[in-house]
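fyi for ur records
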Amino acid sequence: MFNEENKFIEGLLSGANKFSNQRHIAAVRDGFIDLMPLTIIASFWVLINNMLLNPDTGLLNFIPNIGIFTEIGGYVYNATLGILAILIAFTTGSRLSRSYGQEGFVGGYTGVASFVTLLPSTVIVNSLEGDVFEVGGVLTQALTSATGMFLAIVASLIGVTVLSKLSEIEKLKIKMPESVPPTIAKSFNVLIPIFIVTLILAVFQFVVVIIFNTNIPDLITTFFQTPLVGSLQTLPGILLYVFLSNLLWAFGIHGTSILGSIGEPLMLTALQENIDALNAGNELPHIVTKPFIDAFGWMGGGGNLICLVIAILIISKREDYRTITKIGLVPSLFNISEPLMFGIPVVFNPLLAIPLIIVPSITISIAYIATNIGLISKTAAMIPWTTPPVISGFLATSGDWRAVILQVLLIILGTLIYMPFVRMTNKAKI
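which gave:
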């Protein structure tokens, strides 16, 4: 039995190493690592804006007009997480291009061009008066932030791969006289390949718009949101929501943002009905609300990463993991997971992706059942999503100390599930 277990672990490690060292996967992983300083800086500003400067719930909200200072963090957010999709398209393209033995910056700007080529040429905006306008030449944060990363990564990988293959064809290179500086000559060598790459992607986008009367980002969103149109108040429904959210995170996509546009309105409506019932002295009708999933599914951020933090600090022997975890510890305590997601990184990590998906599904299932049979109270209070674990459970359930105990037990359980995978990363070259 012991030998069989060792063989299974060795096979899993071997498969994980092969997966992580695959050219395209490595490019995405290293691209996220390149952006780690920006994601950490942005995450701290998100924390400051929400915990300190928020005029409604911030700790400094007693100061008049304190909310105006959130503009400072807003500027930083716009320049970092607000354009994260564009940045990851560049770093991924640059890394992939270098893996093919070519210029990194050429792959970088080709990755960005490939991504933007697949974005819609116009967007719909609503005025303050309620009028609807179609505006051209605009890139919104719905397209350039974390919600657009999936398309950015795929577009960059496809564009740079095709570019690298075409660049090897001598007939596609424009020969320049020897008197021309090498830098200029290299630029002309990739001119035709880049033209072909952008042409292919532009035609593809054009066909999608003409035939399906939509655009590629909307198609991607619809693909993941459609299964969730049904009620989220059932255990299978909320498990599907949690599973898809963390599956997206495993591939570097902000799952809670992608699915939040359909899930959060339903869960906020359920919360309001619970609040109304509580005020009327009636039985609360719903289990699944936004504070419910925040308190029991997103402890430490997507994937219940507070459990990963504890697991790494306890048993990880990797100095890189431990150092990044110490940096990301404070944001994680306030459910901001980006420093760990993109710093370790957890995304595109075949070993950590398994508990990333499994742990929230288990904790949500236990919390749902515990609420359903009356072991803890139903949630009936709106709390900021940055409320730390344990405190969040107490506040969301209107002061039920049993929810605190449940959160502690779920964190322990989640940590135990993460631990074997963290131990495997000690041996893996990921």
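The chain has two domains: 24-213, 229-425. thats all i got for now
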